Fold this sequence. Notes:
Blueprint (H helix, E strand, L loop, with lengths): L11 E5 L4 H11 L4 E6 L7 E3 L17 E4 L11 H23 L7 E7 L26 H16 L6 E7 L1 E3 L6 H10 L12 E2 L1 E3 H13 L7 E3 L5 E2 H12 L9 H11 L4 H4 L7 H5 L9 H10 L2
Parallel strand pairs: 1-2, 1-4, 2-3, 4-5, 5-6, 6-10, 7-9
Antiparallel strand pairs: 8-11
Helix pairs in contact: 2-3, 4-6, 6-10
Amino acid sequence: MKTEQTTMSNGRIILAGGSGFLGRLLEKTFAGQGCEVIFLTRSPRRANDVLWDARTLGEWEKRLDGAAAVINLTGRSVNCRYNETNRRLILESRVLSTKVIGEAIRRCAKPPPVWLNASTGTIYKHSFDRDMDEGGEMAADKDAKDEFSVAVAQAWEGALNEAAVPGTRKIPLRMSMVFGVEQGTVYRVLRRLARWGLGGAMGSGRQMVSWIHEEDFCRAIQWILSHENLTGPVNVASPGPVNSRELMATMRRVVGAPFGLPAAQWMLEIGAFFLRTETELMIKSRRVLPKKLLDSGFEFRFPRLENAMKEIERRL
C-alpha cells in the first residue's frame, strides 16, 4: 500500500487556534503544498489571520464555506496551576470553540468534508502496562489520578460528537506530546533539564510517555485528511511509547549529559508550584498506540525515540 498521503493542493485549510507550535508546523506543511491557510485567531496580525473569539458566530464563518478542511487546535494551555479560574478557562476554551465551529459548519452551503478537532490521550485510563489503542479503556472521573483533565477530554470530545454536521467527517485527534526544535516546547524543556544534570527519572520513572516527532505529526494529519476510511477518534502518537526513566536516559545519551539527578514526587510538587504548573503533567501514565494509523497503512519515519531525538538534535 502506498504510504505517502495525497496532497490537498490549492484547497483552503482553516486552522482555528493555530497560532502556537502545532499551528505553525501545519501552516508550513500546507502552504508548501499550495494550500490557502486561514487562521482563526483572537489577535489577527497577518493577511491570512481572521478575527474570532472562539465562542460566537461572526464574519469568520464565511471562510469555512467551501474549505477543504477545518482543524481546530483551540485550547488554553494546561501548563498552569489548576485553580478555579484556570479550570474554567481550560474547559470553556475547548468546549465553546468546538460548539461554535460545529454551528458554523452546519450553516455552510458547501460544508468542509472533514473536521479534525484536537483532543488528548489523557482520555484513556491511567496505566503502566496496558496498550491503549482507539478501543482502549476510557478513564473514569471517580478513579482517575487526573480527574480534571479526564473531565475536560470527555467534554471536549462530547462537544464534537454532538455537532450536527452530517456532511462532514469528524475526527477527534487524541494527541501525544509533539517533539520538535522550537523554543518553549516540551522537547526543549526536557533537553534543558538533561543538560543541567536534572535529567533523571521523574517520580517512580514507571509512568509511560507517549510522543511523536514533529514531522510524523504533520504527515499523520495529512494522512487523516486524505483517507476517508479513517473515522472516529485517531491516536496521534508514535508506536514506540517509553517510560519516564527511559525517556530521560535517552535524552541524556543524545545530548551527552553524563548523569541525571532523579526527582521524587515531593520534589515535583515543589517544582510544579514554582513553575505554576501541575505534577499531573509529569507523572500521569498513558501507553497510547496509533492502531488506526498503522492499520490504514501509515508508516512512521521516526517510530523510535532515540532516532527521533537525534534528528531533532541535528537541527539545533
